[in-house]
Amino acid sequence: MKDLGTVIKELRKDKKLTQKELAEGICAQSMLSAIENNVYVPNANLLIKLATKLEVSLDQVSLATNFPISSKYNFNDKVDDLCNNHQYQELYDFLMQDKVLDNLKTSLQMQAYYYYLGVAQIQTNAISEAKQSLNLSLAEVNPKHPNTLGRLAYMAIGYVHSLENQKDLAEEYINKAFRNWDEFSYEENQNALYYLAALIYFKLNDYQDSTAYIADGIGFIAKHNSHYMLANCYFLLARLALVAHNDDERLEANRRKDLFTELYGENIFEEF
Amino acid sequence: MKKLFTNSIEINSNLKTVTDILVNAFTLAKWNYAISEVTEVSVNEFAIHRDEPAINQDEIMTVEQNDNEVAYVSKGGKLEYQLTFQTFQTNNHVLVTENFYILNDFSLPETLILPITKRAFNQNLKALKKMIEV
Fold first, then answer.
1. Strands (E), chain B
2. Which of A204, A222, B11, B41 is deepest in the core (most CB within 10 A)?
3. Which residues of chain A have a CB within 8 Å of the CB of B108?
């Protein structure tokens, strides 16, 4: 399994950055070298700074392999290109063209088409339209045995519900995405399901459940000897660690305030 | 055995009340809200189950008591740990200090898991205080 240092090193090379360029303004080059060689494990703050410079986004996920929407290669390549570059308005505009719609032939192409339309709508803040599109992509999916794309669509609907702070519905769709999970054969895109479940719980401020999905996700990715979504998992974990730390500090501060109030029998001035 | 963190809290109560609750594993679900089921599997050994997603969905917990210390040893989950509670009576309060030790090689980096775990256990301590002081 690839560890955190290797993941950072590969991302840096993908971005064509030298160690010096990535470390600049963040940490010493020697420290980055130690991180990449797994001699030193960075704390959450440092890891978040590295992720920001490496342009790893929490909310924008590229699939390991995209799903075809057409038998025309140029259509699929266009979707691939726009998705991987996170150009969602352009993706939406492309998908809405008549020539694309007229070329949808099979149920799998329809499923993929409405999935991408839903994703483009989520990313361009057309939330209720996104739910409709994602539901259309699930129209011919067997809910008891969804294919990987169906599972991703369920997870995307769960994500929409987390944006609307609807925890019960978000959880319901996470469960739908993982239904009969053990029976399913492996595809690399499935790595994203664990990350997305963790992201949904993160959005819902449920840090323990989010951490649980990251731990499972990293285990799942390792089991299949993959590295797709590994960087995103580590960087989300760093975000979780940072908010948990800040929250814990607030808890401690409140506890000290309560103790002070109890000892001296008066309230501390809240405002100055 | 490596110590990951320490949390502490003052509870308006007496030593016996606090200790009795800590050694009674069946009260765990009342101050650790993630726990949904506690079953005794042998003397001082309990099966803990969580319905919600968790790093340890299931674990076997051994409860030990020595002088002013109660220790939980968790095995069988992804994260194996020991949690010790030291209790001291001060005037009308009991100071509870918990130390968390990792017992196995866990898959996630300790620097990242530490704040998340510390916060979760700190919240449990807060729930323990609330339960006792009501």
1. 2-11, 37-42, 45-49, 58-66, 69-75, 81-90, 93-102
2. B11
3. 211, 214-215, 218, 237
